[in-house]
Amino acid sequence: MDFGNFYVGRPPHQMYVEYFRPLLLQHDLPIVLFHGGANTGACYLSTPDGRKGWAPYLVEQGWATYVVDWPGHGRSGFPQDFAAMSLRQVVAAGVALLERIGPAVILTHSRAGPVGWRLAESAPERVAAVIGVAPGPPANLVPARAGDDPQTQPPDRLIFPDRDDLTYTRSSRFPHGASADLHAFIVPEGSRSLDERNNIDGLGLYVRGPEALAGVPVLVITGDQDASHPREVDEATARYFGGDFVWLADIGLVGHGHMLMLEHGNLEVADVFLSWLRRLNP
């Protein structure tokens, strides 16, 4: 296996990228893995209890795989304006990455969902497909809330997740005995990105409409025990873009929550989207 790392994007919002290429490459397109909020790319490398993560599994299946740390997260470094940093900076770094590596499949999780939709709109010739894992929808589907809404975060503040109340762990398939190891890589988040995800004062990442992803295949995957992603919400996101939707319980994968890449059965979930990709490019 060939592996290495590099940075893309403009300082102070550069993005760290780690890549893994199998010796026997079986697919022309690489897969780029974008983590969600309050996380880093470490969530794709292994699970808290030491099982194989999605990135090494994808490499075993013959895919070149890129794992990123969003700007301001993990090894990308911590800019002084992090609390006010927009998800648009993540999109810009994603565009720079695709300019470097060429067309790729984009996989996003949770708060990276809006990043993926905007990235596909910004660089449609370089986004071969978008896989949304419990993805946030585009702001087009999130009613704008007034700035004085109770869910508004204080402006330009660091938000520290309550590690004793993480919805991440509320599923029967989560490795509960290793929760402390998950907590170790949970990182603070900026209030700006939270307000963008909730579309406070219309700050969210909009696309020009469903036609923004015309010609880009879309798959949305959701677990039946993800309290923050009801079936009807994620199915509506897939439908908006004319994409495919998989409610994992419908295919016998019951008990999954929000952190699908970390849960028991994570590789079975990976097989779901890999099978979908192979149908696109047999």
Automatic annotation (TrEMBL):
A Pfam family that the UniProt record links to this protein: Abhydrolase_6
Q: Which InterPro entries match?
A: AB_hydrolase_1, AB_hydrolase_fold, Carboxylesterase_BioH
Domain AB hydrolase-1: residue ranges: 31-271
What Gene3D superfamilies does this protein's entry cite?
Answer: alpha/beta hydrolase (3.40.50.1820)
UniProt name for this protein = AB hydrolase-1 domain-containing protein
